[in-house]
Design brief:
The complex is a heterodimer of chains A (296) and B (251). Chain A is an alpha/beta fold and 296 residues long. Chain A has helices at residues 9-12, 16-29, 54-68, 79-94, 96-105, 121-129, 131-137, 171-178, 197-200, 202-218, 229-237, 239-245, 257-264, 279-287; strands spanning 3-6, 33-35, 73-76, 117-120, 146-149, 182-183, 223-226, 254-256. Chain A has 2 domains: 3-122, Up-down Bundle (Glutathione S-transferase Yfyf (Class Pi), Chain A, domain 2), CATH 1.20.1050.140; 130-287, Rossmann fold. In chain A, the strands form 2 sheets. A 4-stranded parallel β-sheet of chain A has the order 2-1-3-4. Chain A has a 4-stranded parallel β-sheet with strand order 6-5-7-8, with helices on both faces. In chain A, helix 8 (171-178) links the parallel strand 5 (146-149) and strand 6. In chain A, helix 3 (54-68) packs across helix 4 (79-94). Chain A is globular. With 251 residues, chain B is α+β, with helices and mostly antiparallel strands. In chain B, helix 4 (138-146) runs antiparallel to helix 5 (150-156). Bound molecules: iron/sulfur cluster (4 copies) and FE2/S2 (inorganic) cluster (FES). Residues 49-52, 54-59, 75-77 of chain B line the site of FE2/S2 (inorganic) cluster.
Chain lengths: 296, 251
């Protein structure tokens, strides 16, 4: 059955490399999807104030659009979109009073009670496609690439929406093993990257980001795989600042998990838009002969 | 006229209905538009009225009906009165219009993000779409802009008449219609192929193709000019796509 695909604003602008590589994978894997019509920014952060229902409106409206399409599943790629949509969905499922208020407020939309299932591409790969089926599709095994799986927060916390065991996740690790990589587990895999602290307290954010990257390097990783544009901003884009500020910092390529999947599935490297990653990222894949020398 | 008989009675009696203008009750003929009803009640427009044809956006009006919590809207010049309606016009609503040098813009979404950062304060409450008298999908064009899709926003906002009602209702305090105007400008200047016929026309003007016609017009006295204007050949309202005037020396 067709599923709705929810892109999220960042994937249409700054994180095109996440969306484009994923869509190429959808096609190879035969995922029958449709970009959700009239989707709205989910708000990116789930509001924690108990009486702040206004910020729940946007994600719920998106879930209503999925229901309107007659789809029972909506898939996200960005972990923050996943988190926001999944938590709003839990609220609509479980909190009768708030559900009533929100449904009454949105009197121009059909009522909603959490009928849609919110999934992330990672758990879709695990639960619907299956690791064995995925393995059969791998054309370019990423052998010898030492990758550290980085989860960050929003795929795992809070527990109610966690894709996997919140303290001891293995989903990204299994995913990376399926692609043929050598997985490098490291203690900081579930430590927050600094998130939006980069706006209010950039120095503090830089410090945590540096800690995570350093930890990965120390454990022998050549690269990091992640699923969140904000993580990528803090851990990838801000690496120049990290290198300038911390003498012990080492450069390390950061990829979206979908980019590694796209390469392993043998898609044209152009779909992965490596020009939006750090320069060293594409070099590493070329040096391992996973992609040919001409790709940028 | 030779006869003293009363001619056919041409006035049609219209029923009077009560309406409330800014809270005060008036009895007005039920057939009037809100604008005419306001004038009938004795008010005189110096603002809040422009084209009287539903295109200028000057006469936006909000009203409520008894027993109905909904906010209703309409253009005063287009909307017929209803019994017991409570109404007020909102001829102007403050909404920040940012200053920018258009010639320095290239049609990137990031430019809009910089000029109108409040774009990202939208919470998708949909109050704007619900209030728009032109049925523009306001929330959707704002959503399109957040996604960087200038073309889609320009198309979705095409019917906007800049009445400002969306801004009056916005939970995020956005000036939606000013943002949409920037999107349409960028779309026209950078994201739409230039019109070839326009280039030809400009070249024609520059090559003095119309100079003798203008010189002739300028030399006319007022009466001849009026006559020429009145006798000009007009395109009939029902003309098809391929209609051309008989005198086509300037085409
Ligand atoms: S919905 Fe209305 S009453 Fe409730 S907080 Fe907002 S403005 Fe106030
Ligand atoms: S690690 Fe940071 S950016 Fe990534 S999901 Fe967690 S808070 Fe967000
Ligand atoms: S979009 Fe806003 S300004 Fe434009 S017509 Fe609708 S309500 Fe008026
Ligand atoms: S009224 Fe403002 S906050 Fe609400 S949907 Fe429209 S633009 Fe967004
Ligand atoms: S007067 Fe112009 S729209 Fe009503």
């Amino acid at each position: 059955m067709k599923i709705s695909y929810y892109p999220g604003c960042t994937l249409k602008t700054k994180a095109k490399n996440l969306e484009r590589s994923a869509l190429a994978c959808f096609d190879v894997l035969g995922i029958d999807y449709e970009e959700l019509p009239r989707w709205n920014c989910c708000g990116a952060v789930y509001s924690l104030a108990d009486d702040d229902l206004l910020h729940i409106i946007a994600p719920v409206r998106d879930l209503i659009r999925v229901k309107e399409r007659g789809h029972d599943t909506v898939m996200t790629l960005c972990s923050m979109c996943y988190n926001t949509l999944a938590r709003a969905n839990e609220l609509m499922k479980n909190d009768e009073k708030k559900r009533y208020t929100i449904n009454t407020f949105m009197d121009e939309e059909p009522d909603y009670a959490g009928e849609v299932k919110v999934v992330h591409f990672l758990d879709y790969l695990r639960d619907v496609i299956g690791w064995d089926k995925l393995r059969e599709q791998i054309k370019v095994p990423l052998n010898d690439l030492k990758v550290a799986p980085y989860y960050g927060c929003t795929l795992l916390r809070p527990r109610e929406v966690a894709l996997d065991h919140p303290d001891n996740p293995t989903i990204m690790q299994t995913f990376l093993e399926t692609l043929g990589t050598t997985v490098v587990n490291f203690p900081s895999a579930t430590v927050c990257c600094g998130s939006y602290q980069v706006l209010g307290n950039p120095d503090a954010a830089l410090k945590v980001s540096h800690g995570i990257l350093n930890d990965a390097v120390k454990h022998g990783a050549e690269a990091l795989a992640l699923a969140c544009p904000l993580c990528d901003y803090n851990l990838g884009f801000r690496q120049d600042a990290i290198l300038n500020n911390f003498p012990d910092a080492r450069e390390i390529p950061v990829y979206y998990f979908t980019q590694l999947l796209a390469v392993a599935l043998g898609t044209d490297p152009a779909v992965s838009h490596f020009e939006l990653n750090r320069a060293g990222s594409v070099q590493l894949l070329k040096s391992k002969k996973f992609i040919s020398g001409t790709a940028s | 006229m030779s006869t003293t008989e009363v001619a056919v009675k041409t006035e049609i009696e219209a029923k009077l209905i009560p309406i409330y203008i800014m809270g005060k009750k008036y009895e007005v003929p039920e057939t009037l538009t809100i604008m005419k009803a306001i004038e009938y009640a004795g008010y005189k427009y110096i603002r809040g009225c422009g084209c009287r044809g539903g295109v200028c956006g000057a006469c936006s009006t909000v009203y409520r009906k008894p027993g109905d919590y909904k906010i209703h809207v309409g253009l005063a010049c287009q909307t017929v009165v209803e019994p017991e309606m409570y109404l007020t016009q909102i001829p102007f609503y403050p909404a920040i219009r940012s200053t920018y040098d258009f010639t320095r813009l290239s049609g990137q979404a990031e430019e809009i993000f910089e000029i109108y950062p409040e774009l990202f304060r939208c919470v998708a409450c949909n109050a704007c779409t619900k209030v728009c008298p032109m049925d523009v999908q306001v929330m959707d064009y704002i959503a399109a802009l957040k996604q960087g899709d200038i073309k889609k926003a320009a198309e979705l906002s095409f019917d906007c008449i800049q009445c400002g009602l969306c801004a009056s209702r916005c939970m995020g305090e956005l000036p939606q219609y000013h943002i949409a105007q920037l999107a349409r400008r960028l779309n026209g200047a950078h994201l739409t192929p230039p019109a070839e016929h326009l280039k030809t026309m400009v070249a024609n003007i520059e090559a003095s193709r119309f100079n003798d016609g203008l010189t002739k017009l300028k030399a006319m006295d007022t009466e001849t000019l009026k006559k020429t204007y009145q006798e000009r050949e007009m395109e009939p309202a029902t003309a098809g796509e391929d209609w051309t005037p008989k005198d086509n020396q300037y085409l």
